Amino acid sequence: MSTLDDGTPRTAGDARPGGASGPGVPGAGAGFSRRRLLGTAGAAGAAGLVAGGAAGAGIAAAAEDRPAALASVGAAHIPFEGAHQAGIVEPAQARGHLVAFDLAPGAGRGAAAALLRRWSDAVREMTRPGRPGTPAVYDDQVADDAGPSSLTVTFGFGRTFFARTGLTARLPEALAPLPDFPADALDPRRSNGDLWVQIGADDALVAFHALRVVQRAAAGTAAVRWQMNGFNRTPGATARPRTARNLMGQIDGTNNPKPSEPDFARTVFVPAAGSAASAAASAAGGGGTGTSPAWMAGGSYAVVRRIRMLLDSWDHLPVARQEKVIGRRKSDGAPLSGGTGTTPVDLERIGADGALAIAGDAHIRVAAAASNSGAAMLRRAFSFHDGIGTDGTPDAGLLFIAWQADPMRGFVPVQRKLDGADGLSRFLRHEASGLFAVPGGAGPGEYVGQSLLEG
User: Fold this and answer.
1) N or C: which end of the chain has fewer CB within 10 A?
2) Which among 371, 444, 440 has a CA at the least distance from the CA of 155?
3) Cβ proximity of 25 and 82 under 8 Å
4) Considering the domain boundaries, does residue 295 fall inside one?
5) % of the chain surpassing 70 pLDDT
6) 443 by DSSP, 3-state: which?
């Protein structure tokens, strides 16, 4: 579990006032370690300087010889190396970029391996504590003066990657194509891809700089298939860390699985083949040796959906009606079954009018694990706003990313039910989709995907 700077526990749904840390690797019989928040030494600003007079000038000159301390948001550091890739369990940052690449004609396994090494080496440098650097060949000075700002860059492989690199024998069963959902309106030009990259940072220039480095490092090997840009609330914008709101004004992510829960690792991460965790996952019907090869141990599967919110229609609903559609109060996120924003939902509660307090088609009822035979996933999203669409309404909504050990036992059964029974679906349009295998993290000197590409 991650913590606030004062040691207060933080969940994956919380915003960071100055950075984040996340759990380490779930192994057989092992608990979670903590990702350490590094590089945060130093005050929130540089020390004041004395002005005027000879003595004051001398003090100012001496101070200028020392590098100024980074502010807390800039200093926040999330390690690149680890058994899991960063950018999965950490709270979603203020700025995000999702980008998919297709390999260039003739670029096979060797070229892909070289690209993943270039990407990993560059990200390792950009995310180091203190004032991060940039490999000289990619240094455009866009992020000069900034710290790592909780930068994470996460890499994944699409289903088509395996055929194009001659690795079909290592294609995970869990990477099967997602089924068609009746309400989908997907644009194939903005869906899928050979490679997928998720970038997040709490500074817009740091995030953009990382995006440019990734794109430039891919030149000649892979070309951008699609790119999506998103945002969340900025750390420090609220008096205390809070679960974020989406563009409908709803608090979004309250019921996310939490690292403190005993089945969190089994829900989100692929266990090592042959481990006790793998056996437990298989027995429970989630992930395991039957769906993922050894190179995916410690990894996860990301379902990516661009979900447009029909905001003009939504905003015409009275707040009380909006709350019934969601099943929560808009003011504080408390379930209509009673309590506060952190109170578990009581799906059996009957209201004063004799009806279910949480309506039968309320979003939180239909999406609940209890309504889907225990199916669960970790949701980590960014909002987006791309101007006004051709229909004259806001082209805005959610870049939805669902993490799970097996999408066929996580996202798919939940989305099937949402597609047919969720009252919120009338105000949403799923416009793009992708599924990617995200391997475990890299160790010192390694690159992401090395066990796949060299094993």
Assistant:
1) C
2) 440
3) yes
4) yes
5) 81
6) coil
The two structure tokens encoding residue 314: 């939504």
pLDDT category of residue 66 using cuts at 50, 70 and 90? low
Q: How far apart are CA 166 and CA 296, in angstroms?
A: 17
Quote the tokens at residue 202: 């709490």
Residue 311 amino acid letter: L
Contact predicate 367/379, CB 8 Å = no
**Residue 38 placed within a domain:** no
- Contact indicator for 203, 73 with CB cutoff of 8 Å: yes
- Dihedrals φ, ψ of 92, to 5°? -60, 135
What's the CA gap between 57 and 54, in Å, rounded?
5
Residue 94, phi-psi category: left (phi > 0), alpha (psi -120 to 50), beta (remainder) = alpha
In a domain, 255, yes or no: yes
The secondary structure of 118-131 as a DSSP string is HHHHHHHHHTSSSS
For residue 330, the SS3 value is: coil
Q: Is 252 a catalytic residue?
A: yes
CA–CA distance, 27 with 317 (Å, rounded to integer): 48
Q: What's the domain count of the chain?
A: 1
Q: Residue ranges of the alpha helices (H) in 285-372?
A: 311-315, 319-326, 363-367
For 199, half-sphere exposure in the C-beta direction (CA atoms, 13 angstrom radius) is: 28
Q: Quote the tokens at residue 390.
A: 């051709």
Q: According to the model, what pLDDT value does residue 409 have?
A: 94
Residue 10 lies in a domain: no
Q: What is the pLDDT of residues 184-196, one digit of tens each?
A: 999 999 999 999 9
Residue 16 to residue 94: CA distance in whole angstroms? 10
d(CA 396, CA 384): 5
**What is the dihedral angle through the alpha carbons of 355, 360, 364, 365, rounded to the nearest 10 degrees?**
100
* pLDDT over threshold 80, residue 247: yes
Cβ atoms < 10 Å from Cβ of 24: 21
Q: Which helix (H) or strand (E) holds 113?
A: helix 109-126
Domain that holds residue 293: 73-454
Q: Which of 203, 252, 406, 422 is catalytic?
A: 252
Distances (CA, A) of 202 to 99, 241, 336, 392: 18, 14, 33, 31
